[in-house]
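Appendix B. Chain record.
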Amino acid sequence: MIFMSTLDVNIACIGCGVMGGALIRAMTAIVDPKKITVSAKHFDEAKAFSDETKCNAVVSNTEAVKGAKYVFIAVKPAFVEDVLREIEPALPDDAAVISMAAGVKLETIEGILLTRKRTLIRIMPNMPAAVGQAMIALSANSAADKKDVAEAKTLLEAAGKVEIVDEKLMDCVTAVSGSGPAFVFMFIEAMADAAVKLGMPRAQAYIYAAQTLKGSAEMALKTGKHPGALKDGICSPAGTTIEGVAALERNNFRNSVIQAVTAAYNRSVELGKK
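Structure tokens predicted for this chain:
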């Protein structure tokens, strides 16, 4: 089979863990894997990823970025500064740097790289990127080339939905879509636990709960209707659903969700100050 790429660009990704790995795997559908180079703290990790995806694996981060048009920084926030300082001398003049580190602002990256002329992009993807259903927010610095931003958006769309947002919303994005999947998984688990309590086999219970959330989310997105209106459409007078809704309200369901997202937001703000 001959690979037909959509985008003819060289990509580097420093870090190929869960999130970075998910995005790069998705991009191999539109970029020739031979044009993608990855590095990791331990070469064995990069090599294993290379064996799986047919991308290139190299020993050093500086080697990874040579000749790259788009450089993805997929390391934990605490290591971003060290990685940027390490690769700065080897970065091609026209390379766009794309960071996915929570709390690390574009201004901080500009300060580390000592430039405001390079295209810098900050993204916040989420775990569903692993199945091509990510929600990804993208912000760029004032010097960003519009073509580079558009091309980066196309690359990321291989993993899901991408929206350009003002950077001031990134902490909110982190809390809602970044942390949100964990809250959803908890809800799926709780729904399944209830089903098991009522007699349904565990494996079947997870399918029913997960598919119900998937279908409901798709309905909200495709119809564009207010979630409250969709909920009202299921709640028949004196029926089963309104009884369940009342039980959730008695147990502060909505407030619990609001508090969870707010707590995640506050933590993201805190990380950005370090």
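Further analysis of this model is presented in Appendix C.
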